[in-house]
Design goal:
Number of helices: 7
Oligomer: single chain
CATH topology: Lambda Exonuclease, Chain A
Largest sheet: 5 strands, mixed
CATH class: Alpha Beta
Shape: globular
Distance between the termini: 86 Å
Helix content: 25-40%
Structural class: alpha+beta
Length: about 220
Amino acid sequence: MAGIQQVKPNTKITPVGKQDIWLTDIIEEHLTGTMTPPRAGVFYPSSLGNPCDRYLWLAYNGKLEAKPLPALLQRIFQCGSSLEDRVANWFDGLGILRGREVPLKTDIPPISGRIDFIINHYDLGVIAVELKSINKLNFTKLKDARPEHALQLQMYLNMGNYERGTVLYECKDDQRLKGFIIERDVIEWDNILKRCFRIQDMLTRPEECSGETWCDCRKIGEE
């Protein structure tokens, strides 16, 4: 209409599908950090789960180096923590939770660890529970607890004098569950102790890696 100023539409519309780079970038920067190596002079169940003696010697003697902690890995760790919170709520709601993050240690040899949960199992009595998350592909393949997870729980059973426990898995992709019962095995525990004593007696680190291709000992150069 003549004489009336027309209102022009706002043409600065954010295109559909445009990514918010600023937001994702500051989250990545905030979460990126450094992963400190294990404390020297102590064996940890997670380290003992690695079959490589070279890695275990480096870990026990404080020779592993700090390494970058990418934001993605930090988020994976945080998902593990939130999983523990959810499972704790389940156990509490069922009225079977007896303890969470229960510390355990031995002095000779020095081993330190924490059991994820202690529960009153309706069929098995008081048991330890080691909680793990796993991707869909590996979850589908599970027919038993993975060896490193079974060994970790085995240490807790012997250190805490529990007769049995369960490795409980949740699939990361669809939240399905699987649980595998582990019986206390004093012979396996004795073998774990002998390995610790053997590592303690080594004056120099083993020359070769006996672990997987991703073993952290491969990143440590010769002195």
